[in-house]
Every structure is written in C-alpha cells, then in structure tokens.
C-alpha cells in the first residue's frame, strides 16, 4: 500500500449540472488558509451544462473525472477517492462555500486524536444563521414519529440546530455538505455504501465508522456556508423519492426487513392523510395557494410512488 502524503489535502467534489456553484465552490477551496498542498478532484456525474469545460478552463490544475452519467453521491465519491493521495480527504458539495480557515480548523481537530475518522464544520445559511450540522443516528422510532418531533421532545438525545457546542465534540453523525475524512478510517469501512444513491450515505458511513471504533466529530469553530437544497432543488418530487428510498435502505440495514416494512406502513398512512388534508386545503383556497399546491403535488407524487410499489425507475435521473 502506498503511504498517503501528510502534506497534501485531497478534496473531492461531486458535480451534476451546477456549473456556477461549482466554480464558486472551487474558488473558496483554493482560498483556504492552509500550509498543505490542495489536490482537487471533481467527479462529474454526466453534466450537460458545460461544467466540465468551465472547470478545465478556469481551474486547469483540477483533476476532472467524467463519469458520463449520474453515478449518485456515494459511488462518485468512491470513484474520486481512488484518485486521491492525501492522508485526509475533504468532501465538499458544490453548494458549500468554505470559510478561509475551515479546512485548517478541521485538520487541527482531526490531528488532535488519531482515532477521529471524520469531522464536519458548522454549516451556515447565507445570512450567517446556523443550520443543522450534526444529528443523532436515525432509528425506527425517530423515522416513524419524525425527527423534528423528537428534537422537541428529547433535545438532549436528538440535538437540533439551536444546540451550540463550545468546541470540537464527538457526535453520532454529520450532515454531509462538508466532511473531512481520515484515509485509514475510510479504507477500514470500505468507503460509502453504493446502495445509497442520494441521501443517508454519510449517515451510514458515520455509523459504520463508529461501530469500527472510530470517532465522529463536529467542530463548531470551522464554518462553511451551505446553500441548502441548491443542487437537489433543480428537481421537484424526485429528491423526496430518493430520500424515502434511502431511509428505507438505512432502516433495512439496521433493523431488518421487518423494521423496513413497519416504517413503510406508517409512512404510507402518513402520506395518505397528508394528501387528503392538503387536497381539502387546496379546495378551500380555490386552488390559489401556490405553497399548498406545491406541497400537494410533491406529497401526491410520493403517495403514488408508494401505491405503485416503489418502482426503481422513479427518482433522480441516472442517465
């Protein structure tokens, strides 16, 4: 095995049709204040917006892997990882803009303990307000009741975005917009599970790392602006279908087929009630509420997907 370079910070960015965001993301990364050489790999998942040509012209030192189609987040990152040489690998979404000191602070936390497998920063909205940056591991109960409800009822067990940690702290799982990962930990758990196409892959990775003896950390002093939903927001109901598909896979992996079946029953019933309630609300508003109509269309698409047996050809495009 080739010994990784301790003086190199490897960065992987997965892109699909987010050219403007990608260029801005790259600028922020290259403005990072770090004494390490920054090695960037962009894995392009079949973009048709000129992303690849723009990167090659604007940032010729960046390695670009053209997948030719949408491999999904997990598989694309695994592909990019094979091209990295650094001891630590920074995964950055195209809609995440690193603070100048973000990378160096994450590296400092990682180097403080050789058993830290991954660490993430405080994610911020464009106005500087905090986003949820870490969470407890999802369970069958939390997915049935709803994580939002659990955060209100049991805030110590299910921390929300209002929880402000005073320094680097061990957590259960991270929001995957920005994550620094130790190569040894990544290799130990065989990277991302490619069964997850989009959503829950970082949650699954964190859980497997913790089960293997690695720590997962959040560093509130490291910061990055996350334009939440800017990438998945290109589509309507498709991202929600992917979210449900991934949560079912996560529950099946950790609670078995029975757990998955129970969750499907509860969520299908919940979607049915949602469609009925939103349909009545739309009628009451004479169909003039765009917000209600948008939610109704999204929930109805999810409901139809369940009624049709969760067909595999629904969701985000793979081609």
The SSE string, one letter per element, is: EHEHEHEEHEEHHEEEHHEHH
Determine the mean pLDDT.
93
Broad shape = globular
> Helical amount among residues, as a percent range?
40-55%
Runs with pLDDT <50, length 5+? Answer: none
Q: Biggest β-sheet, characterized?
A: 9 strands, mixed
Count of alpha and pi helical runs: 10
Number of DSSP strand runs: 11
Structural class: alpha/beta
Rg over CA atoms, rounded to whole Å, is 20 Å
Description of the molecule:
- This protein is α/β, with parallel strands linked by helices and 319 residues long.
- The chain is 42% helix and 20% strand.
- It is built from ten helices and eleven strands.
- The strands form two sheets. Strands 1, 2, 3, 4, 5, 6, 8, 10 and 11 form a nine-stranded mixed sheet that branches. It has a two-stranded antiparallel ribbon with strand order 7-9.
- Helix 1 (19-30) packs parallel to helix 2 and helix 9 packs across helix 10 (290-307).
- The radius of gyration is 20 Å and the shape is globular.
- The two termini are 34 Å apart.
- The model has no long low-confidence stretch (mean pLDDT 93).
Annotate the secondary structure layout.
Elements: E1 5-15, H1 19-30, E2 37-44, H2 51-58, E3 63-66, H3 73-81, E4 86-92, E5 96-98, H4 102-111, E6 116-124, E7 134-135, H5 140-145, H6 147-153, E8 169-170, E9 173-174, E10 178-182, H7 183-188, H8 201-211, E11 215-226, H9 238-284, H10 290-307
Parallel strand pairs: 1-2, 1-4, 2-3, 6-11
Antiparallel strand pairs: 4-10, 5-11, 6-10, 7-9, 8-11
């Amino acid at each position: 095995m080739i010994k990784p370079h301790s003086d190199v910070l490897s960065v992987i960015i997965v892109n699909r049709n987010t050219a403007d965001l990608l260029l801005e993301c790259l600028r922020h990364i290259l403005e990072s204040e770090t004494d390490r050489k920054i090695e960037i790999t962009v894995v392009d998942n079949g973009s048709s917006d000129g992303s690849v040509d723009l990167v090659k012209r604007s940032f010729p030192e960046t390695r670009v892997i053209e997948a030719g189609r949408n491999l999904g987040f997990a598989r694309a990152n695994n592909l990019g990882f094979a091209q990295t040489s650094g001891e630590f690998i920074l995964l950055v979404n195209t809609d995440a803009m690193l603070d100048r000191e973000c990378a160096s602070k994450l590296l400092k936390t990682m180097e403080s303990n050789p058993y830290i497998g991954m660490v993430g920063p405080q994610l911020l909205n464009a106005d500087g307000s905090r986003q949820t940056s870490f969470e407890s591991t999802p369970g069958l109960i939390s997915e049935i009741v709803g994580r939002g409800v659990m955060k209100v009822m049991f805030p110590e067990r299910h921390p929300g975005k209002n929880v402000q940690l005073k320094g680097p702290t061990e957590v259960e799982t991270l929001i995957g917009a920005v994550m620094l990962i130790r190569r040894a930990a990544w290799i130990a758990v065989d990277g991302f599970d490619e069964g997850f196409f989009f959503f829950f892959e970082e949650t699954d990775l964190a859980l497997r790392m913790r089960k293997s003896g690695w720590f997962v950390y959040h560093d509130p002093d490291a910061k990055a602006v996350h334009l939440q939903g800017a990438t998945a927001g290109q589509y309507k109901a498709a991202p929600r279908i992917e979210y449900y598909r991934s949560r079912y896979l996560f529950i099946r992996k950790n609670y078995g087929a029975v757990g998955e079946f129970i969750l499907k029953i509860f969520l299908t019933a919940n979607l049915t009630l949602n469609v009925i309630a939103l349909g009545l609300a739309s009628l009451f508003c004479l169909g003039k509420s765009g917000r209600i109509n948008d939610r109704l269309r999204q929930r109805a698409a999810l409901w139809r997907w369940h009624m049709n047996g969760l067909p595999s050809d629904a969701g985000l495009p793979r081609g």
